[in-house]
Structures are given as C-alpha cells and as structure tokens.
C-alpha cells in the first residue's frame, strides 16, 4: 500500500498491527516508527500522536536531545526529529478517525 501511495490505508493497517504489538516484541520500534510516519502522511494526526508517544516511551533514543552517533543513518536522525516534533504539538482538533474503510 505504501508503494501505491495509499498512505491512509497503510496507516490503518499499521494501527491494527499496533493493537497487537505485544505479539511482535523484537520488532516493536520499527513497527511503531512506520505507524507514526504513515499516520502523519495519511492525515491521521491523533493516531500519529498517540503512537509517537508510545514510541518515545519504548525507545529512549527518540526521547533524548543527544546528538546522533556518527555512524547513525541520517534517515533515522530525520525520523527522530519528525517524531519529536509530532509529540511537541498534539493535534488541535478532535476529529473522528474511521478505523474500518
């Protein structure tokens, strides 16, 4: 769905996966990261905010302001800044997000 530029549908599928995140303990951070990014792209701001908070609690590197290690991928640094920006500004309006199409 991501390759077809259907960000909202991809975000909805990732939200469903995140509800069962305890079944994937070793992949928790990548799943949450993908969910936050796709929710933000798809316009699901409230879900992006909620999952970004979960991600910052699960992985301490996202919540610190320390500079990235020199060998860190620049994409991860950009993703961290995006997630921190999402958490700083909660969604303004409480819009109802449809979970099922």
Written overview of the protein:
This protein has helices at 7-19, 28-42, 45-58, 60-63, 74-88. It is mostly helical. It has one domain. The mean pLDDT is 79. It has 5 helices and no strands. Helix 3 (45-58) crosses helix 5.
| H/E series | HHHHH
Average pLDDT taken over every residue: 79
Radius of gyration: 14 Å
Count the strands?
0
Unreliable parts: none
Question: Which structural class should the secondary elements be placed in?
Answer: mainly alpha
Tell me the span between the first and last alpha carbons: 14 Å
The biggest beta sheet reads:
none
| General form | globular
Helix content: 55-70%
- Total helical elements: 5
Residue share in β-strands: under 5%
State the domain count. 1
Question: Key terms for this structure?
Answer:
101 residues; 5 helices; mainly alpha; single chain
Write the layout of secondary structure elements.
Layout: H1 7-19, H2 28-42, H3 45-58, H4 60-63, H5 74-88
GO cellular component, one term: cilium
InterPro entries: WDR19/dyf-2 (IPR040379)
GO biological process, one term: intraciliary retrograde transport
What's the short version?
InterPro entries: WDR19/dyf-2. This protein has 5 helices and no strands.
């Amino acid at each position: 769905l991501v390759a077809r530029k259907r960000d909202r549908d991809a975000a909805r599928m990732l939200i469903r996966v995140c509800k069962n995140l305890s079944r994937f303990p070793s992949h928790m951070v990548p799943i949450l990261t993908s969910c936050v990014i796709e929710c933000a792209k798809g316009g699901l701001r409230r879900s992006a905010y909620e999952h970004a908070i979960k991600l910052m609690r699960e992985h301490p590197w996202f919540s610190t302001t320390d500079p990235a290690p020199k060998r860190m991928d620049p994409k991860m640094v950009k993703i961290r800044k995006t997630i921190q920006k999402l958490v700083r500004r909660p969604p303004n309006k409480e819009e109802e997000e449809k979970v099922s199409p």
